[in-house]
Amino acid sequence: MPAPQTTAKASPAAKAAAVTGKARVATVAAAARPAAAAVTGAKPSKPGVDQPPQPVESFPAQPPTYEPRLGLARVASRRLALLKENNTPAGQISSPPTDTELAAQLVNLIQQHYTSAIALAPRLHDAYIELAQLLEHEVSLEAAADLYARFPFVRCQEPGKPETSQDDLYIESEITRMFMKLKRYRDPVLVRSMISEGREMGIGILTKHMETLDAASEYKTLMEVYAGVSRKAIDDPEMIGFFKIKYWL
């Protein structure tokens, strides 16, 4: 017969020793955590405590440019146009400004943006033209004429090319129109603009203005313009003969 098998049971002392060994390992591991944190310099996280905000990387300020200023001026101009079209009644919000006050504020804002754009790019035409249109309608014709008079024209000296660009020529024609309307007949700016127009488009384009100057007896201006368009000196013999025929001398 096979011998009966007996199952050995661990004594209570052996079980206690095993449990005690596990607890001892856990205690050693817990004691090692602060030491490891001290070595690595990390702080143990605590639940419910917010971490300090990290510094945000800063970038240098960008210099002002032409296009954003021009865009801001156009947006404000559109708002001014909508205000005039809609004529929104007051009383919808507490103590609102009147339409007249708001329009005046917008006009000042538009002028500031256009002026900034002109200072950044004085040879670009859009800001001058749009600001002059605003000034003529909202401020005065004199203000628009004075603005155009400050435009820095550049004449092309290359042979075979137009002396004045089309954009420059538009501003020259506006100067002529405004200065003639303001009767600034003896202003050198008017003489310069009329000469530029006459050279590029022919003396016939100035016929109406010439008649106005003749009726006002502004003979000196007439002689300067004719001589300038002809690219001759005012005392040139040919010019003197022409001026005598016109009874300007």
UniProtKB/TrEMBL annotation:
Compositionally biased tracts (Low complexity): 34-46
Compositionally biased region (Pro residues): 50-66
Stretches the record annotates as Disordered: 34-67
Name of the molecule in the record: Uncharacterized protein
